[in-house]
Design a protein that fits this description.
- This protein has 779 residues and is of the alpha+beta class.
- Helix content is 29%, strand content 25%.
- The longest helix is centred in the last third of the chain and has 28 residues.
- The protein binds ligand MTE and dioxothiomolybdenum(VI) ion.
- Dioxothiomolybdenum(VI) ion (MOS) binds next to loops.
Length: 779
């Protein structure tokens, strides 16, 4: 495994500072089953449990809702419908459109219409079945393609444009048009959606919510109850995974629990079971793509015209920003001299799709990688050569994106060269060709693909963070910030930053639950920016205290402030050396404040959406993967023999955590593009809502030989310790797996015909693609 990515520094004797591969702070508790998730919090006496009643139509007017039988059922304490919401019924996070309970109209099969609170969960579930709803069914639109035809959108389309694509297409020596589709993805976090609302004094509420965005849950609870924000406190110590699925949609669960708690004056817990979670909550957007591309004889793209149509479901949720991000990533790492990219937010009568690791970016990248792969195969060239020919350049040469941002930090040319060498790509390509010549049934393929992913929220105002740093007299620290922990390690990385700042061991820092009563107005932990933003805010808070201590000591000992140095749990003042805890005690006695709030906002970024122009990203994170796959052309089954990953995390704050994110993201990307398949029937009912019908990758699906290294790099921008965000980008390394399968399928026709293989490339699709090639060869 690689080291911290380039910088070697004097580590001294400090335990757990920046650059140290310390384990996740909860790793031992996760393994021992001792980590406290919301369902593990000891229940208060009188706690009620909730079950929802869900729509059985994709689109229908609700003529009447009769809850009398449910209300009379054993153990039931309250049943609510839209009519019982005391405040605003709409909990749309950015745009309106999300009723907390369906109000007169249902817009997807599975939309909650009523909720029952009872003494036990069993009683609540039994009573929820007794709710009677009268519907008048309406016609439903179910697919992105159909919605695109009908121009049925949740919000207006957007265009990004550079140069003169029409003219460049008309004169391009080669031109091709086509369409493709890629599927969505269920988050399948191990901990399902849950909230636990506890009434406090004066009508206040304390709500535990499994959410990436406690501040938004706080605001929406207050709004739907008609309370002030200060009356609601939301806390989350950890989630059992979020993956974007808990960026907006936990609000509905928390609001329903809170309305019931306010109504009954009882603590109320609402935990979805797996099936309801999969049915009721949004997923990754599946996309329909249409393109017209012009290229030269080397496969260089000269002009691109592309429509990206995402299935948003019934409401806007975050789809504006998600389809924007798909558009931002329609270049992946490639220069598009003339391009028009149009993004469409297709409205369908299905669950409202939401954030999912990569936030639309992966979909844009799959579209362009499909295209580049097709260009290479049409020209009969190695796709890696065509990829390299299309990479962004530098210093004014082919370095501006289709949204006007200059790519200043491009390291893909070096990364692809390095991975090509370290993965032995060329020799293995020849070995694979040899293997395929001698193997009529099993075929192998390989693909090496890049990742370039923009870091920052494209809603510029979200790029801010706050922290609260409390130092106690004994020299220990409580740390709090707006970041939420979902397994990705933001807590330990930010704690390492604070340990480094004070130069104290990591075990002196107590990481505390994210709580809207400690740091207000936080942004979601999303866009991979958790450590970038909260690490900076926490360092700011710690620096303020350190500076106070420095000036206090300088004055006390009559030295200049720069004679004071913090190092390895000690503080040196001139010739004197003191323990950190002696300094904090002394400072307390001298009435020096030992707490501070820190704050950070990302510099340089701006985005003018109406002109589709700006610098939406502070920087880019890069990666590349080379995967070798083997398919059985008679069954469509496959396995992944080897994958080599090279990923750029800048100067790593914690290489072990970062490598964990790279491996986990890569495998989640493999799942999305190969085996995870969502299937709605003709009535708009999701039929894949449990692990029996929805397959996520397991340990067996990880490439047998997986080699991950960190690219030696430092962030050229002034990020926290020059690190780079790592949460989402590695998911897109999974594209190499999908294209390795495509390469293996192409071997069926000896690479003379371009195969059709959309995503997910399930064994069924792989088999159909092989059959199709055989038929085309025969015909
Ligand atoms: N890793 C784990 N283990 N669990 C998660 O839910 N979410 C991903 C990524 N890695 C996730 C994860 C997503 S979608 C994002 S945006 C980032 O983590 C968020 O955390 P960060 O900003 O601290 O990287
Ligand atoms: Mo991640 S999709 O930005 O929560």
């Amino acid at each position: 495994m690689a080291d911290g990515g380039g910088i070697r520094r004097d580590r001294g004797t400090l335990k757990g500072g920046v650059g140290a591969s310390v384990p996740h702070d909860s790793a031992a508790k996760h393994v021992a089953g001792e980590a406290v998730y919301i369902d593990d919090i000891p229940e208060l006496p009188g706690t009620l449990h909730v079950a929802p009643h869900l729509s059985v139509h994709a689109h229908a007017r609700v003529l009447s809702v009769d809850v009398s039988a449910a209300r009379a059922a054993p153990g039931v304490r309250a049943v609510i419908t839209a009519a019982d919401v005391p405040g605003d019924i709409d909990i749309g996070p950015v745009f309106p459109g999300d009723p907390v309970l369906a109000d007169g109209l249902v817009q997807f099969h599975g939309q909650p219409i009523a909720a029952v609170a009872a003494d036990t969960l069993k009683q609540a579930r039994a009573a929820a079945k007794l709710v009677r709803v009268e519907y008048e069914p309406l016609p439903a639109v179910l697919t992105a393609e159909e919605a695109l035809e009908k121009r049925f959108f949740v919000s207006p389309s957007l265009t990004m444009r550079r140069g003169a694509p029409e003219a460049a297409l008309a004169t391009a020596p080669h031109r091709m048009t086509g369409t493709m589709e890629m599927g969505g993805q269920d988050h399948f976090y191990l901990e399902g959606m849950i909230a636990y609302a506890q009434p406090r004094e004066d009508g206040d509420l304390l709500v535990f919510s499994s959410t990436q965005h406690p501040s938004e849950v706080q605001h929406l609870i207050a709004r739907c109850l008609g309370l002030a924000d200060h009356a609601v406190t939301v806390e989350v110590r950890r989630m059992g995974g979020g993956f974007g699925g808990k960026e907006t949609q936990p609000a509905q669960i928390a609001c329903i629990a809170s309305i019931l708690a306010a109504k009954t004056h009882r603590p109320v817990k609402f935990r979805l079971d797996r099936d309801d979670d999969m049915i009721m909550t949004g997923k990754r957007h599946d996309f329909f793509v249409r393109y017209d591309v012009g290229h030269d004889a080397d496969g260089r793209i000269l002009a691109l015209d592309m429509d990206l149509a995402g299935r948003c479901g019934f409401s806007p949720d975050l789809s504006n920003a998600i389809v924007d991000r798909a558009m931002f990533h329609a270049d992946n790492g490639y220069f598009l001299p003339h391009a028009e990219v149009r993004g469409h937010r297709c409205k369908t009568h299905t669950v409202s799709n939401t954030a999912f690791r990569g936030f639309g970016g992966p979909q844009g990248m799959v579209a362009i990688e499909h295209l580049v792969d097709r260009i290479a195969r049409t020209l009969g060239r190695d796709p890696l050569d065509v990829r390299k020919a299309n990479l962004y350049g530098r210093d004014g040469v082919r370095d501006v994106t289709h949204y006007g941002m200059t790519v200043e930090d491009n390291v893909l040319p070096e990364m692809l060269d390095e991975l090509e060498r370290s993965s032995d790509y060329r020799a293995r390509r020849r070995a694979i060709d040899d293997f395929n010549r001698g193997s009529p049934v099993l075929k192998r393929g390989v693909a090496l693909t890049p990742v370039k992913f923009g870091i920052s929220f494209t809603a510029t105002h979200l790029n801010q963070a706050g922290a609260l740093v409390l130092v106690y007299q004994d020299g220990t620290v409580q740390l709090n910030h707006g970041g939420t922990e979902m397994g990705q390690g933001v807590y330990v990385k930010v704690a390492q930053v604070v340990a480094e700042t004070f130069q104290i061991d990591l075990d002196r820092i107590r990481i505390t639950a994210t709580n809207t009563g400690k740091v207000p107005n936080t942004s979601p932990t999303a866009a991979s920016s958790g450590t970038d933003l909260n690490g900076m805010a926490a360092r700011d808070g710690a620096m303020q205290i350190r500076n106070r201590l420095t000036h206090f000591l300088a004055e006390r000992f009559g030295t200049a402030p720069d004679a004071v140095a913090f190092k390895d749990n000690k503080v040196r003042v001139g010739d004197q050396v003191m323990a950190f805890e002696d300094v904090t005690r002394m400072a307390y006695m001298a009435r020096i404040s030992l707490s501070a709030t820190g704050f950070y906002r990302t510099p340089k970024i701006w985005w003018d959406r109406s002109a589709a122009h700006g610098r939406p990203f502070y920087y880019f994170a890069y990666g590349a993967a080379a995967t070798e796959a083997e398919i059985d052309t008679l069954t469509g089954e496959y396995r992944f023999l080897r994958a080599d990953v090279l990923h750029d995390v800048g100067h790593s704050i914690n290489p072990a955590i970062d490598i964990g994110q790279i491996e986990g993201g890569f495998v989640q990307g493999i799942g999305w593009l190969t085996m995870e398949e969502l299937w709605w029937d003709a009535g708009g009912r999701l039929r894949t809502h449990a692990p029996s019908t929805y397959k996520i990758p397991t340990a067996r699906d990880v490439p047998a030989d997986l080699r991950v290294s960190l690219f030696a790099n430092v962030n050229r921008e002034d990020t926290i310790h020059r690190s780079k965000a790592v949460g989402e980008p590695p998911l897109m390394l999974g594209i190499s797996v999908w294209l390795a399968l495509r390469d293996a399928v192409a071997a069926v026709a000896d690479h003379r015909v371009v195969p059709d293989l959309d995503a997910p490339a399930t064994p069924e699709r792989v088999l159909m693609a092989c059959e199709d090639l055989r038929a085309r060869m025969a015909g």
